[in-house]
Q: What sequence folds into this?
C-alpha cells in the first residue's frame, strides 16, 4: 500500500513511521511511504509556502500554488485526503474501508490551514482525528497510517488480531493479563488460567460489555448485540440519568393561539402518555399543575380510576405507570415537593417550540448541557399545554431547552410527542 505524504515538515514522520511494526512493514515493502515536501514547489527564493489570510485575523495560511504543484507531482495519488478538524471523524469502520486502497495521499495542513480553493481543484476528502486542534496534520496522518496499516495482511503476527480489538464489533476490547499471575496480591482472574476456552470467551465478552457500558456507552447504539449480550447488560448496575429528571405539564398559565394567557383543561391522553414515558425512562417523577379546583378533581378522578379503580384491574401496567403522577397548583409547589424528596432544590428548565429572539436572550440550552445538569442534581423540566408556556413561567427557568426540529419551519408537535422525544434524547438507554 502506498501513502503519499504531502507536508511542509516531512521529517516529522521519520521516527513514528520507522519504529516497531510500522518500520518492519516499510522494510518488508508492505507499506511504501512517499514524502512530498511542499517547500520544493515554492516559487520564490525564500521557499515561502505561507501568507496572510484575506479579511485579516490571526495566523498564516498555506498558499495555493505550492500545494497544487505538490499534488500534481504525484503520479498515482489514489484517494486524496486532507487532515482537518472539520473532516469526517476517523473511526475503525472508516479505517477498514481505507485498508482496501492501493494509494492514499495525505495532505497535512499547518498554521491556520490551507487556502480553501484547493478543495475546488482536487477531489479532496477531509478527515479529522478528533474534536480538538493540533498544530498540524502530520500527527493525524500518523494515526491514520498506523490504524490502516495494522489491518493489512502480514502486518501483525496473527491475522485475526485486528478482528478482536476495540470497536471491531462495536464494543471495547476485554482486559489482558500476562505473567506473573500474582503481582503483590493482584491476581489474574482464575478463569483465564483455567484453560476452558468456552468460559474464557464468555468471560471476555462479559468484560467487553461491562467496559463499554461504563466507559463508552455512546458506542452501544451501533454495537452488534445478541439477545444474551442484552440480557447481560440489563443485569449490570448503572447510574440512570432519568432518576434526576422530573417533568411537569403546566395547564396554567399558558398561551392560547392569540398569545393570551389562559388555563387549559387536563386531558386523559396527556396524563396517560406522559406517565408512561416517566415510567419507561425511570424518571424521578411526573407532575401536572393546575390551580383550578375542578380540574384538579378531574385529574384525581382519572388517576384513581387507573391506580385503584376498574382501570387498574383491567390494566395493572397502567397502575404502575400512574404511580409517579402528582397534581399540584403550580411549579413552586412542585419544586418544594422535589426538594422534600431529594434534599436538593431542582434546577428549573423550560421547553418551547419557539426560539427566544429577544436581544437579551441567552442561547437556548443544548441537550448535552442539560445532561451535565442531570449528572449532578435534580432537574425539573417544564412543558406547556395550549400554545406553550406563558412568559411568567419561562422567565423563572434557568435555561430553555433548544426546540426540537429547530432547523425546520414546522415543528408543532403535541406535547405528548415532544415529551417522548425530549426525554429519549436526554436519558436514552445508553446514558
Ligand atoms: C492549527 S490547525 C488549523 C485549525 C483551523 N484554524 C481550525 O480552527 O479549524 C493546522 C492544521 O492541523 C491539522 N489538524 C488540526 N487539528 C486536527 C484534527 N483534529 N484532525 C485532523 N487534522 C487536524 C489540519 O491539517 C490543520 O490544517
A:
Amino acid at each position: 500500500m502506498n501513502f503519499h505524504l504531502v507536508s511542509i515538515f516531512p521529517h516529522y514522520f521519520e521516527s513514528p513511521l520507522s519504529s516497531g511494526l510500522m518500520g518492519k512493514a516499510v522494510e518488508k515493502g508492505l507499506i511504501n511511504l512517499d514524502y512530498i515536501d511542499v517547500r520544493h514547489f515554492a516559487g520564490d527564493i525564500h521557499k515561502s509556502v505561507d501568507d496572510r489570510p484575506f479579511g485579516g485575523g490571526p495566523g498564516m495560511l498555506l498558499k495555493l500554488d505550492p500545494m497544487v504543484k505538490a499534488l500534481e507531482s504525484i503520479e498515482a495519488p489514489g484517494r486524496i485526503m486532507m487532515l482537518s478538524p472539520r473532516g469526517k471523524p476517523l473511526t475503525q469502520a472508516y479505517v477498514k474501508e481505507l485498508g482496501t486502497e492501493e494509494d492514499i495521499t495525505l495532505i497535512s495542513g499547518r498554521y491556520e490551514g490551507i487556502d480553501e480553493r484547493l478543495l475546488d481543484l482536487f477531489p479532496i476528502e477531509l478527515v479529522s482525528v478528533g474534536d480538538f486542534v493540533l498544530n498540524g496534520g502530520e500527527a493525524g496522518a500518523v494515526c491514520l497510517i498506523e490504524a490502516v496499516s495494522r489491518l493489512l495482511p502480514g502486518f501483525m503476527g496473527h491475522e485475526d488480531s485486528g478482528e478482536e480489538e476495540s470497536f471491531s464489533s462495536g464494543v471495547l476490547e476485554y482486559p489482558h493479563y500476562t505473567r506473573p499471575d500474582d503481582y503483590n496480591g493482584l491476581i489474574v482472574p482464575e478463569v483465564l488460567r483455567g484453560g476452558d476456552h468456552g468460559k474464557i470467551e464468555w468471560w471476555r465478552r462479559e468484560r467487553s460489555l461491562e467496559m463499554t457500558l461504563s466507559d463508552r456507552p455512546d458506542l452501544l447504539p451501533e454495537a452488534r448485540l445478541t439477545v444474551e449480550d442484552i440480557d447481560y447488560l440489563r443485569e449490570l448496575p448503572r447510574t440512570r440519568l432519568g432518576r434526576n429528571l422530573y417533568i411537569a405539564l403546566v395547564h396554567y398559565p399558558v398561551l392560547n393561539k392569540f398569545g393570551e394567557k389562559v388555563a387549559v383543561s387536563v386531558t386523559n391522553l396527556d396524563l396517560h402518555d406522559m406517565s408512561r414515558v416517566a415510567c419507561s425512562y425511570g424518571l424521578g417523577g411526573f407532575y401536572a399543575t393546575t390551580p383550578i379546583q375542578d380540574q384538579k378533581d378531574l385529574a384525581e378522578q382519572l388517576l384513581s380510576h387507573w391506580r385503584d379503580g376498574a382501570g387498574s384491574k383491567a390494566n395493572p401496567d397502567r397502575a404502575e405507570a400512574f404511580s409517579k403522577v402528582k397534581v399540584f397548583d403550580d411549579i413552586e409547589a412542585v419544586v418544594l415537593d422535589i426538594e422534600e424528596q431529594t434534599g436538593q432544590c431542582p434546577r428549573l428548565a423550560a421547553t418551547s417550540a419557539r426560539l427566544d429572539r429577544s436581544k437579551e436572550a441567552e442561547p437556548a440550552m443544548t441537550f448535552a448541557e442539560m445532561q451535565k445538569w442531570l449528572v449532578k442534581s435534580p432537574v425539573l423540566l417544564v412543558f406547556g399545554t395550549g400554545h406553550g408556556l406563558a412568559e411568567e413561567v419561562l422567565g423563572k427557568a434557568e435555561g430553555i431547552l433548544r426546540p426540537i426540529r429547530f432547523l425546520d419551519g414546522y415543528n408543532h408537535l403535541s406535547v405528548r410527542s415532544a415529551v417522548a422525544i425530549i426525554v429519549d434524547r436526554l436519558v436514552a438507554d445508553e446514558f
Q: What stands out?
A: Residues 242-427 form a domain with the Alpha/beta knot fold (CATH 3.40.1280.10). The pocket of S-adenosylmethionine is lined by residues 83-85, 108-110, 112-113, 128-130, 132-137, 140 (CB under 6 Å).
